[in-house]
Write a structure and sequence with these properties.
Length: 728
């Protein structure tokens, strides 16, 4: 029985108590008199009946007011206090009951509840300190793992046996973005994320075959249980993949038990884009074909002409003709060889593995090395910071250090400078000094000597390292400025690789998140409606619009979303995109969301954005605050885009109404304040989505206390809320 029903019953009882005695007394008196006495009673009572009735009604109204006041102060006040105490127990430890609200008895109870909360906080702080100390070593291990992952140049993805992604590094994120066929909006990162399926990228049968191979090797006891395969990505890239097993001991066995059987719980993928290597191999094949097939006919003509020239009685005119054929064919062969050497210069270089790096980073490393080893001052001049080079950085830094050391020891150079400039497919790296010059013979001598700097010796020579890079080195002089410099030619990095690498540097170098609890997650365990709320994957989203009437033509101007996986808010796995509405903005809405018309110029339209958002939200439960409003905008676009958002939807407004029916407001700001959450970026789509996600995470334990633990229970409870009746 709820509080409102109890209030109605109390009013009815009050009415009976006030009118009942008078009615019963009147009936008894009426039955006890007869004849003239009854007529006299009527004459006496009837004239005063209206006044008595009015006094009874007034008394009843006063009684109802008194009961209502007592009900509000005690019953509703205590119910509100109970809700606030639930907040103190779970979602907001810092929340306190208002000690000045209600009658003295309720205030005393509020003071007692706050005192108990203070004592609870002291105990919890001690427990948290102990837990933090115990977790410190674990966090250090995680940090080391994150640092290791961030430095890897390969793409690394860790999955459980269901193919759900548990860990990935930033390089993998860039690789997956490049592989996505979805429209490149909102960062284009729809393919990768914690809890997402690797089968969105790779063929399930291919992964299953590799897993079967690895599991067979694990059962056989192979120490190197790996599988390798080559496949194509979504955008046509050629990928070399190495898969290895994640092993753990069976339940009841220690991980370090000798002879203990270990089982496979997941797998690691190392991804390498070999598209460019394949293209270079194709270019080499083309070069060989050009050198063989292109010159086969010419060689045949030369052979025939040479055989004819061996005849001693050959006519002079014919001899001259055959000699001209030999000269022409040899000239043509020479031209073809020169053209091939020029066109396939990169393919003719040494196959020594070179790394791609920013030229400015290479010079910075050279400065540090020279300063630390030789204490020689260094400076930079005319450095093109956009240039990328392909180098063996270790051996090249040895060359620079060696040359500077020889300059200091033999010519007394006190300072060196570095210059970096581009020249087509090559990069000019200049080592500059002022003072005495040297002869070319000295330069050749330095190039051929084994490199030695102090106690550091290398079997390589400068010439060896330069040839390893397919480059050249020579001495030049600047007579006007009385300077000289060594110019080293280095190969420039491929322009496409330069774009990819620069994008990689702009993202956070640490893994976004890693969550090994997902090893225990199998979507085949239960139907989604019967899954616990703590086990589901969510996309929390919000929209900003031109107005509040989707059915009357208002349009979406921004979509923002974030993800919740395994009870964690993944802030960096987000979706945020402005949308061109193809209609004017409502001027009254601009101060609210802060989006001005000029910000929407050249932005993609909704038919480009919704497919990307649909891919981002795939296989998740949607969450929004006042979800009916946002979902109505998406539903109205189903006909145009052919995309249906048919996954389950939860509404934090409805869930708040279920948990706290006695609270005055269920606006997002009011809920966040009750739950002690800080709002950042309110009325931006992504900002509201993040706050909504934080609110939902706080509501989950409160829902569990009220018996709402599964998705089905949450949906059924929300549908009974008063706010669920609102339609758009």
């Amino acid at each position: 029985m709820n509080a409102r029903t109890r209030f109605v019953i109390a009013v009815l009882i009050l009415g009976l108590l006030m009118t009942g005695p008078f009615v019963v007394t009147g009936i008894l008196v009426w039955l006890g008199v007869h004849g003239e006495s009854r007529e006299l009673l009527v004459k006496v009572v009837v004239p005063h009946l209206p006044l008595g009735t009015m006094m009874t009604i007034i008394g009843f109204i006063i009684g109802v007011g008194v009961v209502r006041n007592l009900f509000r102060q005690y019953v509703q006040g205590l119910l509100r206090m109970a809700e606030n105490q639930h907040l103190m127990l779970g979602a907001n430890r810092d929340f306190r009951v208002d000690e000045n609200e209600g009658p003295p008895e309720v205030q005393a109870l509020a003071r007692t509840a706050n005192a108990l909360a203070e004592q609870r906080d002291v105990l919890l702080q001690d427990v948290e300190a102990q837990i933090a100390h115990a977790k410190q070593s674990v966090e250090e291990e995680k940090d080391r793992l994150a640092a290791l992952m961030s430095e890897l140049t390969q793409s690394v993805v860790v999955c459980n046996l269901d193919g759900r992604i548990l860990l990935y590094n930033s390089r993998a994120r860039q690789q997956f973005r490049a592989m996505s066929n979805a429209p490149q909006v909102a960062g284009g990162g729809e393919l990768i994320g914690l809890g997402r399926s690797i089968y969105a990228v790779f063929d399930r049968n291919l992964i299953a075959h590799a897993l079967e191979t690895i599991q067979h090797r694990v059962r056989r006891g192979d120490e190197q249980a790996v599988a390798k395969f080559v496949t194509t990505g979504g955008a046509g890239q050629l990928l070399r993949v190495q898969m290895s097993a994640v092993l753990s001991a069976r339940a009841g066995q220690g991980a370090d038990d000798d002879g203990g059987e270990r089982v496979m719980t997941g797998f690691i993928l190392l991804l390498e884009n070999v598209t460019r290597d394949f293209e270079e191999e194709s270019r080499r094949d083309q070069m060989l074909h050009s050198l063989t097939e292109g010159n086969r006919a010419a060689l045949a003509n030369v052979r025939i002409a040479a055989e004819m020239l061996e005849y001693p009685d050959l006519d002079e005119a014919l001899r001259e003709r055959f000699s001209r054929v030999v000269r022409d064919e040899i000239g043509a062969m020479s031209e073809r060889l020169d053209a091939t050497a020029s066109e396939f210069a990169d393919a003719l270089k040494s196959r020594w593995p070179l790394e791609e790096m920013l030229g400015a980073d290479l010079l910075a490393a050279a400065q540090r090395r020279v300063t630390a080893t030789l204490s020689t001052p260094t400076k930079l001049e005319e450095v093109d910071e956009s240039l990328w080079v392909k180098v063996d950085s270790f051996s090249l830094l040895q060359v620079i250090l060696y040359l500077v050391n020889r300059l200091v020891e033999e010519f007394g150079v006190r300072e060196v400078r570095f210059r970096l400039s581009g020249a087509g497919r090559l990069v000019h790296l200049d080592l500059i000094w002022a003072g005495a010059s040297m002869s070319n013979e000295t330069v050749v001598h330095w190039e051929l000597d084994p490199m030695t700097v102090g106690d550091e010796r290398s079997p390589l020579t400068v010439r060896d390292v330069i040839e390893r890079h397919g480059g050249e080195m020579w001495l030049e002089r600047e007579k006007v400025r009385h300077r000289a410099f060594f110019r080293i030619l280095l190969p420039a990095a491929n322009p496409q690789a330069q774009v990819d690498a620069s994008a990689y540097l702009k993202v956070q170098s640490r893994p976004e998140y890693y969550d090994f609890d997902l090893f225990k997650w199998s979507e085949k365990a239960r139907e989604i409606d019967d899954r616990l709320l703590t086990e589901l994957t969510y996309t929390v989203f919000d929209t900003e619009t031109t107005g509040l009437n989707p059915s009357q033509g208002d349009e979406i101007i921004q979509i923002g979303a974030t993800r919740i996986v395994n009870g964690k808010l993944l802030r960096h796995e987000s979706f945020e995109q402005l949308v061109d509405p193809r209609r004017p903005l409502n001027p009254e809405s601009i101060p609210i969301h802060g989006i001005r018309p000029e910000m929407l110029v050249n932005q993609p339209t909704i038919d480009k954005v919704l497919p990307a958002f649909h891919a981002f939200a795939q296989d998740t439960v949607l969450i929004a605050h006042n979800a009916a409003f946002d979902m109505r905008f998406l539903q109205l676009k189903e006909g145009m885009t052919g995309l249906v958002f048919d996954q389950p939807v939860l509404d934090t407004l409805l869930l708040s109404g279920v948990l706290h029916p006695n609270q005055e407001s269920h606006r997002l700001e009011a809920i966040a304040e009750r739950l002690n959450l800080t709002i950042v970026g309110r009325h931006t789509a992504l900002g509201d989505a993040i706050v909504t996600a934080e609110v939902f995470l706080k509501l989950i334990p409160l829902l569990a206390e009220n018996g709402v633990r599964t998705l089905r229970e949450a949906r059924e409870a929300a549908e009974k809320s008063y706010y669920a009746r609102i339609k758009y």
